[in-house]
Amino acid sequence: xxxxxxxxxxxxxxxxxxxxxxxxxxxxxxxxxxxxxxxxxxxxxxxxxxxxxxxxxxxxxxxxxxxxxxxxxxxxxxxxxxxxxxxxxxxxxxxxxxxxxxxxxxxxxxxxxxxxxxxxxxxxxxxxxxxxxxxxxxxxxxxxxxxxxxxxxxxxxxxxxxxxxxxxxxxxxxxxxxxxxxxxxxxxxxxxxxxxxxxxxxxxxxxxxxxxxxxxxxxxxxxxxxxxxxxxxxxxxxxxxxxxxxxxxxxxxxxxxxxxxxxxxxxxxxxxxxxxxxxxxxxxxxxxxxxxxxxxxxxxxxxxxxxxxxxxxxxxxxxxxxxxxxxx
Length: 328
Known about the structure:
Elements (H helix, E strand, L loop, with lengths): L2 H23 L3 E7 L6 H16 L8 E7 L4 H13 L4 E5 L1 H10 L5 E6 L18 E5 L3 H14 L5 E6 L6 H12 L5 E6 L4 H10 L5 E5 L3 H5 L1 H10 L4 E3 L2 H5 L4 E5 L1 H16 L10 E2 L3 E6 H6 L6 H6 L2 E3 L1
Parallel strand pairs: 1-2, 1-3, 3-4, 4-5, 5-11, 6-7, 6-8, 8-9, 9-10, 12-13
Antiparallel strand pairs: 10-12
Helix pairs in contact: 2-11, 3-4, 5-6, 7-9
């Protein structure tokens, strides 16, 4: 064997244990994911795909240097409490929590494990952070609805269905942002000559009965607030609203692609992509208290012409001009 080859072999042999030890020292980090949807939901899959793709770009690969523990509640209040305790017991390095109804129960269990939240409407009002610029505790993240959007829902619904005189606002009472969103709608109701009333729903069994009761009188419409119950049971809500010919506005695009009339709201998947950056920063040593809460940057209006035709509605040119997407 030539002398140069022999030295190279010796050098490689010496380096191998060092490389192995370096790889061993790279500690597996643990991420908890606390979701209001069910695992089989197509929206769940798109959100998790956005999250994991961005984490991979940042150097975090599931099974290599990152372990992910999921809990899917389907919006069930009992599961929310149970799974919040389960995730905290696993002692993850950080927890990603979706929705205000999930952040509160988490903070009741832990004030030390970092929490990155997404799809939260009122982080300050919900008590999750001290302020948007200086969260101050163990949570930070991304808000998806400013309260002025709530008033926009009422305005758009009145524009697209001018004969409406009564509006029921479907909300989940355990969602802390629901009261503020309803208040913003109520503040505009008199000027638009409509009566608004809350429709508090705690489980799926109430959805069909309460909407059907409301539809018993003419000139009604619905505003669906963003909450886990409505999102999980969106197919039922869309079907019941269509059956009773109730013009309805929704908070997310996928309600419209699923047959709903109109939606105005943010790109939810974008928040999961952005949340991955905060997860990365926390895993690298940043504190949630020092990371400002950020707001949605993408808001879109979607229309479903087939649904409008079934309701006998003609979309005004002013609404058409605002639309980011028109579904034929």
